[in-house]
Amino acid sequence: MTSPIRTERHDDVMVIISDNPPVNALGAAVRQGLAAAITEGLDDDAIAAMVIRCDGRTFFAGADITEFGKPMQEPGLPTVVDMIEASSKPVVAAIHGTALGGGCEVTLGCHYRVATPSAKIGTPEVKLGLLPGAGGTQRIPRIAGVALALEMTAKGDPISAKKALDAGLVDRIVGEDTLAEDAIAFAREMAEHRPLPRASEKIAKPDPDAVAAFRKENARRFRGFEAPAANIACVEKAADGSSFADGIAFERSEFMRLMSGTQSAAQRHLFFAERQAAKVDDVPTDVKLRPINKVGVIGAGTMGGGIAMNFLSAGVPVTIVEMQQEALDRGAGVIRKNYEATAAKGRMKPEQVEAAMGALTPTLDFAALAECDLVIEAVYENMDVKKDIFTKLDTLCKPGAILASNTSYLNVDEIAACTKRPEDVVGMHFFSPANVMKLLEVVRGEKTGPDVLATVMALAKKIKKVAVVAGVTYGFIGNRMLMPRQVEAMKLLMEGATPEQIDKVHVAFGMPMGPFQMSDLAGVDIGWHRDPTRIESIRDALAAEGRWGQKTGKGFYDYDEKRQPTPSPRVAEIVADFRAKTGTPQHEITDQEIVERTLYPMVNEGALILEEGKAQRASDVDVVWIYGYGWPVYRGGPMFWAQSEGYDKVVAGLEKHGFAVAESLRDGTIK
Ligand code: T1G
Q: Radius of gyration over alpha carbons of the chain, in Å?
């Protein structure tokens, strides 16, 4: 098998080139080729300097994550990086694209680094539950200082070439299209310079204030994660006066500790799960996509407005339709307000706000949708209303237009049946706030055309959503799994638990909020029959008293003006009243019982969804809950978590509480 590494001679400069698509991951063959090439350059007296660069779209984007968990083939990346640094001849990294993780560490082993203006450099290992394991935590502080090293390693976001230049991580920014020749010229320029700058020989100045401030500032963001603290500890080690060798030994031990832990396994699982979710198993990758140049959105409420923003932000013109001028104006106003808030935070330029608003066409004229390539209905969650709309769209919209519903539960096949073009109908279930939440459930109807599905999946990527294909089933994937959790949470309330106890267990597990906090955020009155005299449940009782959640300042909790929740004595009364009225037996409820009765049933429902073919794969279910509901990434999603818990334990927990266990969960054949 030919090596992905080749060498070229340009007079006294040898260029080492990697061609390992798609991202020049530093797999064994690449590492072996690099080591051989460096030796070749050192052994050739005609060579005065070396350049390392990559073909394709990016410099090395990191170690090959697919190799993790398998026996490591020599040479390891640390060895290769040390070899580069120890070279007696200057080695120049020629950076383009994204030099990430091990890729960044290869540049740090080089004596010099040149980069294109658009290049990015980073150490995102923390997002995989790891840390830079080839000297990054020791070399970055020595070159760029503790503060930037903390940002780069413990948060994992890449920095621009300009920022890297200012920090000393890059020596020169070269031409966007002349990287190869500029790197050679730079190498020749530095060929005779001595001593060769070696990061490992520099001293990192301690900065305890920066470390303390960083820890404090990011406490909430790092809650529950193990890797950020390990990255911080390694950066501290680099600047505490320890030798480079001791720092490397510490980094290595921390790396191995994280690598063997469940959090990294979970986060690496999600890295691939997110990319796998974009693939539709039975649709060819070369299916012809439908052009989407103009989008229509029906409804300018919270959902419609948020949905519209996704397309406007991606530069796709949107026609948004409402029935009343006042609602239309309010909707357009909210869109502008959201953009202006983003601009105020410096995340958007004012001209971008105007460009987005300029691409929005608010109208009361339903017929304006006739020319749209995709129309997304985002109106009241009522089947009759949706059927009426799709019947109209069927005759109004041009042939080939995709007709999508943002329904969060209803039967997309039933909606499609109102049209003569069911193959053009699909569900696009956005999560509120639609312009923020990354998850998009793409609901595939019985007759949805493969090209329609592929078009929507590609569009999801364009609007920066993580799309997951769901089948037609009540609540699709996420909400169908949410239902048993909410039902059991109410039962636990009736049997003796409090809302705060149940929510606390979920927050301690890593969820952003528990079932009752979520109800208060979404609205206790959602789905309520609106008859305050008809009180058949705790929820009815709350809704009847206007306890609709955060929006009315009270729900399952009481809220202060900053929307801070406190347990509500009134709710305790209502609950006690219902317990008495129904004669529900009470018992001491443990936190473990709460986990077994609210989280295990979600896993069970996920297994049923897979058995029914309403999700393509277990990892898709994980992606839904991570991106749609904030399931803690370090637990990998409900299905991954169940596997790491042990299916037997989950089955035993479900049986203990009388649940019917899904066959695939019982026999461990979930996939
Ligand atoms: N290893 C293996 N495969 C990878 C990969 C990697 N590092 N990065 C990407 N891929 C695959 C990916 O699965 C997909 O495959 C294809 O490449 C395109 O990726 C020792 C231990 C570089 C910004 O964390 O952030 O170095 O689905 O769809 O949107 O200290 O990929 O086509 O079959 O994401 O253009 C550290 C991870 C590793 C970077 C490109 N590095 N990658 O984004 O394409 S750990 C990372 C990314 C490490 C050292 C440590 C992104 C990207 P398929 P893609 P993209």
A: 28
* Ligand 1 centroid distance, CA of 468 (Å): 20
Q: Is the pLDDT of residue 73 over 80?
A: yes
Whole-model pTM over 0.85: yes
Residue 558 pairs with which residues in a beta bridge? Answer: 554, 566
Domains and CATH numbers, the chain: 5-260 (3.90.226.10), 295-475 (3.40.50.720), 521-582 (1.10.1040.10)
Question: Given this model, what pLDDT does residue 83 score?
Answer: 98
Q: Whose CA is nearest to atom 34 of ligand 1?
A: 275
Beta strands in 268-408 (DSSP E): 295-298, 318-321, 360-363, 374-377, 402-405
Q: Place 1 in a pLDDT band, splitting at 50, 70 and 90.
A: confident
**List of residues 6+ apart from 472 with CB closer than 8 A:** 411, 412, 413, 427, 443, 444, 445, 446, 614
End-to-end CA distance of the chain: 33
The pick from 20, 65, 285, 633 for probing ligand 1's pocket by mutation, whose C-beta has the most ligand atoms within 8 angstroms, reads 65
Residues touching ligand 1 (Cβ under 6 Å) are 22-23, 25, 61-66, 77, 98, 100-102, 105, 124-125, 128, 130, 132-134, 136, 272, 275
Q: Is the dihedral of CA 172, 176, 180, 185 positive or negative?
A: negative
- Give me the amino acid identity at 118: S
Pocket test for ligand 1, best of 23, 107, 131 (most atoms within 8 A of CB): 23
Q: Which residues are catalytic?
A: 105, 125
Closest CA to ligand 1's atom 52: 61
